[in-house]
Write a structure and sequence with these properties.
14% of the residues lie in helices and 43% in strands. With 379 residues, the chain is mainly β. A hairpin with an 8-residue loop joins strand 20 and strand 21. The strands form six sheets. A five-stranded mixed beta sheet has the order 3-25-24-23-22, with no helix packed on it. The longest helix has 16 residues. The protein contains five helices and 26 strands. The chain is globular, with a radius of gyration of 22 Å.
Length: 379
């Protein structure tokens, strides 16, 4: 195999999961250099995404578990307990705020935040970011995070939105800060957050370089659901156009499906609609993927959310509340239940792809390259 060109070796290795690649790094310094190179990391990641391979679900119950996505084809899947996650020794509850390119964002109630790659078992604890509101008496309401990749600056960023309420007038005040992995630092976004989000939901949904949340706007007719976006490149807010609804009153949420923004419309006790925006930012590209009446066996469709497509694309995995995973056949319009062994409360379900993406900052990456070049010279 040593006689093969490097690009052929890279093509072969890029088809493997992360675990054997970690072993192959021990073969030689050139192989280690190849596998750790940014070009190979991107090749491996893109191949996994394009072929829908190396995918897993991260499940949060009282602890964190991992389930191989392909194993969900059967009625019962096995889960592996993730004893090595970076907040495992801190008894303050672990929250999962999303996954991007194999990196998972975790936090606890002490506001300790880490970025973690479950495949490589590497993690980075983020520096503390104080809440810096003017010195006026306010009540803390809540905080929410959104995590994603900024292709403009080739950087991973975490957005934190903190909401406080005035003691005297009940006014809402927001602080938005952004963490950059490249600089390993936080900075404040001066533009005012436009609306009040429901901060008890999952973290911001990433697609097309933007994070998304559902927010509510008070109108003369009552509350209206809006989709607010945050561009990770220019760090500006926007509103995403929505489909034309026949019935505008529903419980809304957003997800990402196949790289596209998805809107979930839960009509309490009646049915659920799931829309997909096939061309980002284009209102006319919204397509209704599912319109499903509520079965008598379910109390309500509230908290139904799509997780991801099957490899064939013919089925959609749905989470129904904290107890059920369902495969929905898009052609036959039928559901079948999937159970995960020894996991009884699906508090959170996050799709994650196995990757070699590093959690080193820009400075750390430069030091790694310098050390690697020195080792190659000494060979």
């Amino acid at each position: 195999m040593s006689q093969l060109p490097e690009e052929v070796i890279a093509d072969i290795l890029s088809r493997l999961p992360v675990k054997p690649l970690g072993q192959f790094k021990l073969v030689s310094i050139p192989w280690r250099s190849l596998i750790e190179s940014p070009n190979f990391v991107k090749l491996h990641l893109n191949r996994s995404i394009d072929t829908k391979s190396n995918q897993a679900l991260i499940l949060r119950e009282e602890q964190l578990y991992s389930v191989d996505f392909d194993s969900l084809d059967g009625p019962l899947a096995d889960a592996a307990k993730l004893d090595h996650h970076p907040l495992r020794c801190q008894d303050y509850g672990t929250e999962v705020w999303g996954s991007c390119n194999g990196i998972v964002c975790l936090s606890n109630s002490l506001d300790t935040v880490v970025l973690w790659n479950p495949s490589t078992r590497r993690s980075r604890r983020l520096p503390y970011a104080p809440i810096e509101f003017p010195n006026q008496p306010r009540y803390f309401v809540s905080r929410v995070y959104g995590f994603g990749y900024d292709g403009v600056s080739d950087d991973y960023k975490l957005v934190r939105i903190v909401v406080l309420k005035g003691r005297e007038d009940d006014s809402l005040h927001y602080e938005v800060k952004v963490y950059s992995l490249r600089s390993n630092s936080w900075h404040r976004v001066e533009e005012k957050f436009p609306h009040y989000p429901d901060l008890n939901r999952v973290g911001g949904v990433l697609t097309s370089g933007n994070l998304h949340w559902i927010v509510n706007e008070e109108t003369e007719r009552g509350k209206t659901n809006l989709i607010v976006s945050f561009d990770l490149g220019c760090e500006e807010y926007g509103l995403v156009p929505q489909p034309e609804f026949t019935h505008p009153r529903f419980y809304a949420d957003v997800e990402v499906l196949g790289g596209c923004l998805s809107l979930i419309c839960n009509y309490y006790l009646t049915h659920i609609d799931i829309w997909v925006m096939k061309e980002y930012g284009v209102k006319e590209s919204w397509t209704k993927l599912i319109s499903m009446a509520q079965p008598d066996t379910l109390r309500s469709f509230q908290n139904v959310r799509p997780i991801g497509y099957s490899k064939s694309g013919g089925q959609l995995l749905l989470q129904h509340g904290p107890l059920k995973l369902l495969w929905y056949d898009l052609k036959r319009k039928t559901c079948k239940s999937v159970k995960v062994r020894d996991v009884h409360d699906l508090s959170q379900v996050v799709m994650c792809v196995g990757s070699l993406v590093s959690l080193k900052s820009g400075r750390g990456e430069r030091e790694r390259k310098k050390k690697q070049e020195q080792e190659e010279k000494n060979m």
